[in-house]
Amino acid sequence: MRVKLLFLVFFVGLGASTTPRTPIPPSKDPWYRPPSRFESAAPGTVFKVRQAPGNLTDMFNCSAVYNILYRTTDSQYLPTWAVTTLYIPLKSGHSPRSATTQGQGDAAPSPPFLTWLHPYDSNSLDSSPSYLFYDASTPFVQDLRTALSRGWHVSVPDYEGPKASFTAGVMSGHAVLDSVRAVQRARLPSIDDRNPAAIWGYSGGGLAAGWAAELQASYAPDLELAGVAMGSPVVNVTDVLYRVNNTPLAGLIPPALLGLTSQYPDAQKFLISHLKPGPTNDAFLAARNVSWTQAIQTFSGQDIATTYFINGLADVFAPEMRLAWGRDSCMGYHGVPWMMPVYVYQAAHDELASVDDTAALVARYCGVGANIFFERNQVGGHLEELVAGAPGAVRWLASVFDGTYSQKYPSTGCTIVDV
Ligand SMILES: *[C@@H]1O[C@H](CO)[C@@H](O)[C@H](O)[C@H]1NC(C)=O
Ligand SMILES: *[C@@H]1O[C@H](CO)[C@@H](O)[C@H](O)[C@H]1NC(C)=O
Ligand SMILES: *[C@@H]1O[C@H](CO)[C@@H](O)[C@H](O)[C@H]1NC(C)=O
Ligand SMILES: *[C@@H]1O[C@H](CO)[C@@H](O)[C@H](O)[C@H]1NC(C)=O
């Protein structure tokens, strides 16, 4: 193992990739910087691999955890980078393709490889999952534990990228797709492009999963995905912002506005220049440095546009903002998930994301040949469905991993089920 790791470090070409004993916030950790001239590398190229610092193996009951820094593409279609964290289970599950053997006569199992998208919903780089998970109180990590206990290898990308571009769909989708390529190419034990690969996310993670699915055929047609599962995908960010304004979840809005415009410097400059002067200015901008949990507490119940912007909603939807909203906030316009089956699940009474928007998206994809299984849960709301919908997603993922999918689900067309 140690020998393999040294070989790997040599191979990737970085002498100085020593792992610090304790984790350092990404904004301060020099490891979170790409090499010079990284721009010319192809998307998915691995720049750095290290064993994750600290004790994530204890916290998540797994055998090893790696960080991988790789090349991806931002919402302006310019080169950027991102980091993913790969969790190796204590005991690998197997899949039909596990019969393949690798060199040196080793019987190499091909355990399922899940890319799981944590809804970190923050404009702070230091809330990226590769660092956030050291805080044992981080919410919504149960799905990661479930997947590891099934013997799945799990990659958790920081899909918002180096600017923590919460709600920027193109950036997020690209970072997810390139994280899959990077894990396959990182030359880590028992994982390469022969492991069946699938993607799963809920809420903010469903947004990233949805964008990855939609962008795959054009951006990463080389990737063979067994399936994509998305729960309560945020099909239309604007619609969600209207719905959460004045509610306990209003704290999603400031990081969303800052995250989206982090991909559009002119739009961000405009937005910030239209903040009301005085203490509310600082209060709004503090959203750049806080986690989801903190933002939810700080902005709870507020009417965000009228509290913070000189011209209220007119600033938020000004012509200067049009490209950002147009390109990055609505699914259904960048492609169709044609190349793998898709599972969608959502609460019929989801108060955060509109189930009608999701149904319209599914209909749009289905009209041109996608294969989608959509379960609408008649019980519970957005946060309840995160828990209640997980077993259905795990069952579906298990079927695409073990090859029983076509016996258990309709393998063509679209099926909508109310459960
Ligand atoms: C290791 O993880 C546990 C949670 O499982 C945490 O309570 C503890 O403080 C961590 N120890 C170190 C040294 O980081
Ligand atoms: C860790 O996983 C092993 C194997 O699945 C299990 O036996 C053990 O109880 C788990 N430990 C914790 C602390 O969850
Ligand atoms: C997104 O939602 C907003 C607010 O409900 C609506 O005005 C807009 O037309 C929607 N955009 C698309 C592309 O459906
Ligand atoms: C807050 O975030 C901004 C922008 O990301 C950064 O420039 C600044 O250094 C951060 N402040 C603190 C105290 O971390």
What this model shows, in words?
The protein is 37% helix and 16% strand. It is α/β, with parallel strands linked by helices and 419 residues long. The chain has a domain at 237-328: Orthogonal Bundle (434 Repressor (Amino-terminal Domain)). A 10-stranded mixed β-sheet has the order 1-2-3-5-4-6-7-8-9-10, with helices on both faces. α5 (169-185) packs across α6. The longest helix has 17 residues, at 169-185. It is globular and about 60 Å long. The N and C termini lie far apart (47 Å). The structure holds 2-acetamido-2-deoxy-beta-D-glucopyranose (4 copies). Residues 61, 90, 149 line the site of one 2-acetamido-2-deoxy-beta-D-glucopyranose (NAG).
Give the overall shape, derived from the CA principal axes.
globular
Instruction: Report helical residue fraction.
Output: 25-40%
Cα distance, first to last residue? 47 Å
Q: What is the topology, as strand order, of the major beta sheet?
A: 1-2-3-5-4-6-7-8-9-10
Mind telling me the CATH class of the domain at 237-328? Mainly Alpha
State the total count of DSSP E strands: 10
In this entry the ligands are:
2-acetamido-2-deoxy-beta-D-glucopyranose
- The average pLDDT value, as a whole number, equals 91
Our estimate of the beta-strand percent is 15-25%
Low-confidence runs: 1-16, 97-109
Family: Belongs to the AB hydrolase superfamily. Lipase family.
Signal peptide: 1-17
Pfam family, one: LIP
Keywords: Hydrolase, Signal
